[in-house]
């Protein structure tokens, strides 16, 4: 009985989530972009953090002329669905409106795409499957030792080690690297977190930065492609 109640509750939740999503989509289609933004954000606040919600939220922000928040939403969508061609296209398209001081070369872009091709959850699933197959081969070889099982065990051991190291690097990178998007127009970066200091350089809205340090309401950020560091107000960025 308890299982039936839980299943019924999940079905009701999914039905309401679907209805909310359709209602938000209709607001977007009607050109009510600010209202659509509010509707998608309500869904996110209620725990419906799917890639399609972030994607449509990004579309709404773009139509509402909020480039920084649009890019932030696309980045969050891409994190959940790294192989989605529509998300990648829209993200690149909106980025084309930003005045960049440095352009990422094709090779770096390809390597970054390859590095993030799988989500952490997908990596964990693949690692579990490979480990299960490896253990099955180890058990098999306790009873029958032949050349094929030897090479299969050797190959799966190497594969398991590669995936394990790669997954560990991804987890460490995810834990230690805090990325954010500038959501305020034309942010001035200073050499020190002091209000009266002159601006060292200006960061355009929508620019992706890496957070290095935090001090009260200031953050030190790095512009990776330009290799430039500076302090900006915490309120001017949103973490991905």
What do these coordinates show?
The structure is a single chain. The protein has 240 residues and is of the alpha+beta class. The chain has eight helices and seven strands; from the N terminus they run H-H-H-H-H-H-H-H-E-E-E-E-E-E-E. It has helices at residues 2-29, 33-45, 51-63, 67-80, 85-95, 106-115, 120-143, 147-176; strands spanning 178-182, 187-190, 199-203, 208-215, 218-223, 228-233, 237-239. The strands form two sheets. The protein has a five-stranded antiparallel β-sheet with strand order 6-5-4-1-7. Helix 1 (2-29) packs antiparallel against helix 2 (33-45) and helix 3 (51-63) packs antiparallel against helix 4 (67-80). The longest helix is centred in the last third of the chain and has 30 residues, at 147-176. The two termini are 41 Å apart. Residues 2-15 have low confidence and may be disordered.
The strand count comes to 7
Overall shape: it is globular
| CATH-derived topology of the largest domain | Serine Threonine Protein Phosphatase 5, Tetratricopeptide repeat
**Which class of secondary structure composition applies to the elements?**
alpha+beta
CATH homologous superfamily title of the largest domain: Tetratricopeptide repeat domain
Instruction: Please indicate the count of domains.
Output: 3
Radius of gyration: 23 Å
Q: Largest sheet at a glance?
A: 5 strands, antiparallel
- Quick one: CATH class of the largest domain? Mainly Alpha
Distance between the termini: 41 Å
> pLDDT below 50 for ≥5 consecutive residues: which ranges?
2-15
CATH architecture of the largest domain: Alpha Horseshoe
**Strand content bin:** 15-25%
Mean of the pLDDT scores? 87
Helix percent band: 55-70%
- SSE order in H/E notation? HHHHHHHHEEEEEEE
Q: What count of helical segments does DSSP give? A: 8
